[in-house]
Design a protein that fits this description.
By secondary structure, this protein is mainly α. Helices cover 75% and strands 0% of the residues.
Length: 204
């Protein structure tokens, strides 16, 4: 029973830190801000996190794990007849997920990668590694599509990088316009172009 308050306090700290990072950036977030909003002392904070950097790393890890859990069901092979179906389901899942006002506030990976290379290089490296893992996951899926379609000229790296840059750019524009439909429009266009490219490589 005694472990429950500790767990709930840690989750509250993570939630508050995530919201502050999304609204202000990591450098502008402070331990004092987190403690004030979580209604805890600094001693209570340091019981869970040794410093601001370890909190940032935990926020990134939670962001990444939450994303993996949201899409886990997509990779059940019984749900899709082809790799193209899996990829279109993956994109549709992204479109639907980023209609959530909380998720559409921005990508934690982008915030850490863009803002921390000089000030917090260890956190920059963590975010960079997550980006590389995401890129590799996309390339792997697209390579399976390439094999399925029998098209050696299908550029899996370019298509993977185009998805990431499309989504990240759409998140920025959606936040500036306060319009999540930007994400739906751009990812829908990406999906249409991907399907067209796949069908051209392997006409039915």
């Amino acid at each position: 029973m005694s472990s429950q308050p500790i767990a709930s306090t840690r989750e509250r700290i993570l939630q508050i830190a995530r919201d502050l990072i999304l609204s202000r950036g990591f450098n502008a977030m402070s331990i004092d801000m987190v403690c004030r909003q979580a209604n805890i002392t600094k001693g209570g904070f340091f019981h869970h996190f040794s410093n601001k950097e370890t909190l940032g790393e935990a926020v990134l890890e939670q962001f990444w794990q939450d994303a993996l859990e949201r899409q886990q069901h997509l990779f059940d092979p019984t749900h899709h007849q082809s790799q193209l179906e899996l990829l279109t389901a993956y994109i549709d899942h992204g479109i639907a997920s980023y209609q959530d006002p909380q998720l559409s506030q921005g990508c934690m990976l982008a915030i850490f990668t863009m803002g921390l290379a000089d000030t917090h290089p260890s956190l920059f490296e963590v975010s960079r590694n997550y980006f590389q893992a995401w890129r590799k996951e996309l390339i792997d899926m697209l390579q399976r599509l390439q094999q399925e379609q029998g098209s050696p000229h299908f550029d899996t790296i370019a298509w993977a990088e185009l998805y990431i840059t499309t989504l990240e750019g759409a998140l920025l524009l959606a936040k500036s316009m306060d319009d999540t439909q930007v994400i739906a429009r751009t990812l829908s266009l990406y999906k249409q172009q991907l399907v067209n490219a796949a069908n051209m490589a392997h006409p039915r």
